Amino acid sequence: MSVAAGGLVGAAARSLIEFWLPSSRGMFPTMVLAVNVSGSFLLGLYLSRRERSAGGPWSLQFWAIGVLGSFTTFSAFSLEVVHLLAEGHSGTAAGYVAASVLGGIFAAAVGQRIGRLA
Fold it and tell me: Cys staple from 103: which of 25, 37, 57, 61, with CB 3.0 to 4.6 Å?
């Protein structure tokens, strides 16, 4: 039940960001990048903070799996890359893949470091 409740929160947050940062086909997918990088940061932060807390299993299920799992999405990232390639935007697709993967890893590491310091 906590995963479903968290999923509702994460999906709603993602929908709001999609409203604020709409992307057009063929353009750089700013919204998906913003969601996935910020979600990576938040997951790194949450998991490093969770190591020092006494949160129960519901906390991990709600926040990590539910909220952040439904907030971020690999499938939307993959589909954006496929669309960019199909429309002949291979340079944009390559930049998007690099920004997503490297940005996500960097954001998760920063979140984890901040979580350990706080």
Answer: 37
User: Quick check: 55 pLDDT over 80?
Assistant: no
Q: What's the predicted TM-score (pTM) here?
A: 0.91
pLDDT for residue 118 is more than 80: no
pLDDT for position 27: 86
- End-to-end CA distance of the chain: give it in Å, rounded: 30
Residue type, 95: G
Residue 100 neighbours by CB under 8 Å, 6+ apart: 32, 33, 36, 37, 77
Question: Distance (Å, rounded) from C-alpha 30 to C-alpha 28?
Answer: 6
State how far the alpha carbon of 82 is from the alpha carbons of 25, 52, 54, in Å.
Answer: 11, 41, 42
Q: Is 41 exposed, middle or buried (0-12, 13-18, 19+ CB in 10 A)?
A: buried
User: Does an H or E element contain 19, and which?
Assistant: helix 2-20
